[in-house]
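We close this part of the discussion by returning to an individual protein. In the encoding step, the backbone of a single protein was reduced to a row of integers, each denoting a local shape. The sequence in question and its structure tokens are set out directly beneath this paragraph.
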Amino acid sequence: MGADDAQFIAENACRDPRTYWLEAMRKETYAYQSLFVSEMRKQAEAVIEQLEDRGLPVPDDVRARILDCIDPFILELWLKTVKDVGAAEDLLVDQRLFLELEEAERLKRKRLEAEGLAEEAELAGGAEGEPDLGEGAA
């Protein structure tokens, strides 16, 4: 691992794993990364083509955002919803909603995991190092 890679990891260690992964893929250092980015760009182009086939104008800023996207989840969302939008800009609104829902789900999973660990600790006798006194002790 080079110094640039170590610095990248240090700067991004606490970030969302999916964001980190997508940025790493965007580097296109290895053939598989280039292949992944190429496939995602094909999907982005398909989204734009479908918008244009429907006669919807695709402003330059929206086109740039779509073509810059390499997130397979977002592109899949766009490909599913492109037939239902009234304007190209509506896809970007769907993206924000998707990301907000996904973040809420991630936080919910973390909370449930934390509660699950707390429940396991409670069943095992409370906090670490504390004896299990049982229900009748006090």
